[in-house]
Write a structure and sequence with these properties.
alpha/beta, 3-stranded mixed beta sheet, 6 strands, about 20% strand
Length: about 170
């Protein structure tokens, strides 16, 4: 397991309210006002390091996109007779109201980062839903037929509905 970066806190008498963090090699540099209490420092440093780690993870996300493309190919073969062939499948962080989207124009599929911690069958359902849209644009009977083979469809839809309701 890779070691966590060392954290170096720098206090500045010129800094009044703002806090900042950045990575320098294997160190995380956190800059805070000199007047900040130790308790507040611990809280702020923890928050900043977590945000910085999340930003680094988002930058690394394209590596995981290869896994999504493979997953999409498997789902297409299993449920859609291989007919849906996306040009790309990737995670995105800018979808806050949708679980996924696709472009029938260029065949790209985007899945919301909010799906990452969810069970695999839920991610598979959303991915299959978007694959079906590559074949059928609307949610009509043909589209519903394309999704009907997914055994955990109802459970996945219920899960997503519960998450959506909880986050209102």
């Amino acid at each position: 397991m890779k070691d966590a970066p060392r954290i170096e806190v720098r206090r500045s008498s010129r800094r009044r309210r703002t806090v900042q963090a950045r990575r320098e090699g294997d160190r995380t540099i956190v800059m805070i006002p000199a007047s900040m209490s130790k308790a507040e420092e611990e809280r702020v440093v923890g928050d900043l390091v977590a945000k910085l780690d999340a930003r680094v993870q988002r930058r690394r996300a394209p590596q995981a996109d290869d896994d999504l493309m493979s997953r999409a190919s498997d789902l297409s073969a299993r449920y859609l007779a291989g007919a849906a062939r996306p040009s790309s499948v990737r995670w995105v962080g800018n979808q806050h109201k949708r679980w996924g989207s696709c472009s029938t124009h260029d065949g790209s599929i985007r899945l919301s980062d909010r799906l990452r911690p969810m069970p695999g069958y839920v991610v598979d359902y959303v991915l299959l839903h978007e694959l079906a849209h590559l074949l059928e644009a609307d949610h009509g009977p043909r589209f519903q037929q394309l999704l009907s083979g997914y055994e955990r469809r109802e459970r996945a839809e219920g899960f997503l509905e519960a998450v959506s309701w909880q986050s209102r």
